[in-house]
Amino acid sequence: MKLQLKDILLGVATAATQIEGDDRNNSWYDWAERGKVSDGSSPVLANQHYRLYRQDIDLMAQMGIQCYRFGVEWSRIQPSEGTFDEQALQHYLDEVRYMKSKGIEPMLTLHHFTNPLWFERSGGWERKDASRVFISFAEKVLQYLGEEVSLYVTVNEPNVYATNGYFYGSWPPGKKSMSAVKRVLTNMTRAHIDAYGLIHDFREKRQLKDTKVGFANHLRVFEPQNGKNPYHRVCARLMEKIFQTSLTDAMMTGRCVFPVGKTGRPVGKYYDFIGINYYTRSTVSGFKDGVKKGAPVNDLGWEIYPEGIAQLAKKLYDKYRAPVFITENGTCDAADAFRSKYIYDHLFSLTNSGVPVERYYHWTFIDNFEWAEGQSAPFGLVALDFNTQQRTIRPSGLFYSDIIKNHGVTQQAYDKYICEKQDCRTAD
Questions:
Q1: pLDDT grade for 288, boundaries at 50, 70 and 90
Q2: Which of 227, 88, 213 has the alpha carbon at shortest distance from 153?
Q3: ∠ CA 373-376-380 to the nearest 5 degrees?
Q4: Across 405-425, average pLDDT
Q5: How far apart are CA 205 and CA 73, in angstroms?
Q6: I need a surface site. Which of 5, 297, 341, 378 has the fewest CB within 10 A?
Q7: Distance of alpha carbon 184 from alpha carbon 162, whole angstroms
Q8: Over the range 75-113, which residues count as b (16 or more CB within 10 Å of their CB) and which as e?
Q9: Mind listing the domains of the chain with CATH numbers?
């Protein structure tokens, strides 16, 4: 056995807007209609998963997928403020029951970057009552799904959402304001804390066990370009603190320091697992993102740095002492030339970290609408022809299935899916 995985459940992750299609009532559809997506595509097509979910879940079952992190589309469920679509809620209930019937355990994400247009146009996450509005939506979701689902992500990557949408202006709503970033992060922290209590109260009243609630935290390693340069070192520390460290502590404990404002919620424990979305390392020489010279990169130019996932998992586990869920990890690789090696290297790094990693959700199950990149950035274990909606399992998807089947990486699978694609003399 090349790599043994004894206690890690292996799954996949998706987001509703990126795969469902045919919803014209969300902020990312509006953003695409305004010509803000690089390849001119729109989430209105996506994967047509809303009508083809049984086909996709059947494919997951065929691949042996053990757990599935999925999202619900807020704009479908609540098309206008105060109005809920019971048919949409029933649809998601049917989807959850179908995946469970195939032996796939669901993990539900409540917010994954998109808002209903009525919420977005009324101020969105800058609204003073944003948490109240979000909780009313979450309450309705729980009425339908709360007894079927025990694992929850309240908010996905609030730092990425706030940074891209309110600082750089490259995502909706397209603002460039540090004060707006602070308002958004404060409100999302408040919403997470409130949702954490809401979900636990709902399930405890029904005597339902194994409830686990957290948030999916985008984390990266920040390293100075020149470790001997004091300016590089200071910039790296500050970027790490502002982008992730302060927010992580606020979301998990309620202790709020810049860039998160006071939430009015008590200090406490607002997590049952440590959720990590990990993709890359940032090499810092100033207050901007950078890539280490000569490092391997994926199709989007992101450094491939497997050691980072273990470094971050250990750092957070040592501080917060909870099971670690890798809620996202994957790479953009149109040719499927290095995805198998990427998966192997990151799993290898995790298994040698000494950290209790219980779940690993690969990003993503199938090529999708990848936000600002549109249809041009394939992350999927399954390839998608957007024109025909044909699904094809990639070799990396077959490799992932083999890992699940054998509870690790056999030498035969390593030779077949990795060595045939590259020089294995330096593979380890």
A1: confident
A2: 213
A3: 105
A4: 85
A5: 26
A6: 297
A7: 6
A8: bbbbbeeeebeeebbebbbebbebbeeeebbbbbbbbbb
A9: 3-426 (3.20.20.80)
pLDDT category, 422, cuts 50, 70, 90? low
What tokens appear for 117 in the block?
Answer: 């247009």
The two three-digit tokens of residue 181, written as one number: 């970033």
What's the chain look like in SS3? CCEECCCCEEEEECCHHHHCCCCCCEHHHHHHHCCCCCCCCCCCCCCCHHHHHHHHHHHHHHHCCCEEEEECCHHHHCCECCECCHHHHHHHHHHHHHHHHCCCEEEEEEECCCCEHHHHHCCHHHCCCHHHHHHHHHHHHHHHHCCCCCEEEEEECHHHHHHHHHHCCCCCCCCCCHHHHHHHHHHHHHHHHHHHHHHHHHHHHCCCCCCEEEEEEEEEEEEECCCCCHHHHHHHHHHHHHHHHHHHHHHHHCCCCCCCCCCCCCCCCCCCCEEEEEEEEEEECCCCCCCCCCCCECCCCCECCCHHHHHHHHHHHHHHCCCEEEEEECCCCCCCCCHHHHHHHHHHHHHCCCCCEEEEEEECCECCCCHHHHHHCCCCCEEEECCCCEEEECHHHHHHHHHHHHCEECHHHHHHHHHCCCCHHHCC
Instruction: Give residue 194's identity as a one-letter amino acid code.
Output: D
pTM of the model: 0.97
